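Researcher: Re-running this chain for the archive, since the previous output was lost when a drive failed. Same request as before.
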Amino acid sequence: MEPEEGAGPAESPEGRGAEAGSPGPPGGKRKMALHRCETCSGEEAKYKCPRCMKYSCSLVCVKKHKTALSCNGIRDKAAFVSINEFSELNLLSDYRFLEDVGRMADGAVRDISLHRPTTNKSINYLRNRARKHNIYLKTLPIGFTKRRENTTTFNKKEQRFYWHLKLIFPQSHAEYIVKRVSDDKILGEILKPYIDPEESDPVVRQKLKIYTMSPPSDIQILMKIENRQHNSVSYDELDTSKSLRDNLKDKVVIEYPTLLVVLKKFKNDMVALSQDANESTEDLDSDSSSLSSEEEGEIRDSS
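Model: Regenerated structure tokens:
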């Protein structure tokens, strides 16, 4: 335990300083009387560990004591203190501990990102607001992974969704979760931190190198069309120049949007995205064409 981590010549309000003994002479320093260093046993103690209550005389002994006892030097705020040993410092420490807890609880309440819909009423509200935006939002029963992950909210004052978004980059075998994405944000702007050769994060850029080295015209953003037969998989191609809201219009979203970022030259690898797809499966809709013999999933242009 280093003095700067908790021990000191006098006990702090948090109880991390040294516990003083009887007061010294008037105007003099307070000393830890009747106690010697429990590490070297050769000097008068100057510090008392807030964690294990061992006495030390110097920084060297403090470090030795921490190593020998595997002590971190941080006071256990929930440790039991008998009524006979309870002092004003303990009372002040407990009071400040409760203040910290209250502050953390208040911060959690104020953090809108933690307001996740858990009741049927809030879920129904989200679905109704999505329907007014011509988005067919469907939710899964409580307990499903996507239900637990979903942090999508609707801001009533701003009249907009803040979506939980999953981005999948199959050619790099990478997935990223983006939270609180405003529905009026342009799709191309959402992708910039990942595939833009200049604005993307260096670590992400290296991971998605095959995308950052490709021209924007070679990149497609696809979204699976839901409510189809299990052996029939099709994708809508999204427009990177439009907002997320416009791209989601007239589409079915299960919990939150999952976007596939693919390279056109690898679109024959759609089998990796939809293992149950059959090349010759017909669409459910009578006006849809059958799947191409070269592609596992039909790609439908949203424009």
